């Protein structure tokens, strides 16, 4: 097996639940559930009376993406390969963590 296959298998074992938007309803949920044994939860937004209700769990992803967008290298697609882009996301996450640890 290739090195990347081991990485994928590692992440598949770690991920237990996937939060998805309404656009991922249908056959994809059953495919993921049957193939990987993961629970896919569709987050629904809004209400029947037209009031805004934030979708459960969506703010976590939106906040994290917003924080990563503050890094200049991540606000545009500057990287040539997906692996380099992934490493830049990891570096940005480490930088955010270090900033929080040293802020006190």
TrEMBL record:
<protein>
    <recommendedName>
        <fullName>Transposase IS4-like domain-containing protein</fullName>
    </recommendedName>
</protein>
<feature type="domain" description="Transposase IS4-like">
    <location>
        <begin position="14"/>
        <end position="97"/>
    </location>
</feature>
<dbReference type="InterPro" id="IPR002559">
    <property type="entry name" value="Transposase_11"/>
</dbReference>
<dbReference type="GO" id="GO:0006313">
    <property type="term" value="P:DNA transposition"/>
</dbReference>
<dbReference type="GO" id="GO:0004803">
    <property type="term" value="F:transposase activity"/>
</dbReference>
<dbReference type="Pfam" id="PF01609">
    <property type="entry name" value="DDE_Tnp_1"/>
</dbReference>
<dbReference type="GO" id="GO:0003677">
    <property type="term" value="F:DNA binding"/>
</dbReference>
């Amino acid at each position: 097996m290739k090195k990347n296959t081991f990485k994928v298998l590692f992440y598949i074992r770690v991920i237990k639940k996937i939060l998805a938007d309404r656009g991922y309803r249908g056959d994809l949920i059953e495919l993921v559930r049957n193939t990987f044994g993961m629970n896919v939860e569709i987050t629904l937004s809004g209400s029947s009376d037209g009031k805004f209700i934030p979708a459960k769990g969506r703010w976590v992803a939106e906040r994290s993406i917003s924080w990563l967008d503050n890094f200049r290298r991540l606000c545009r697609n500057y990287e040539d390969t997906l692996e380099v882009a992934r490493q830049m996301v990891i570096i940005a996450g480490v930088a955010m963590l270090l900033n929080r640890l040293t802020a006190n």
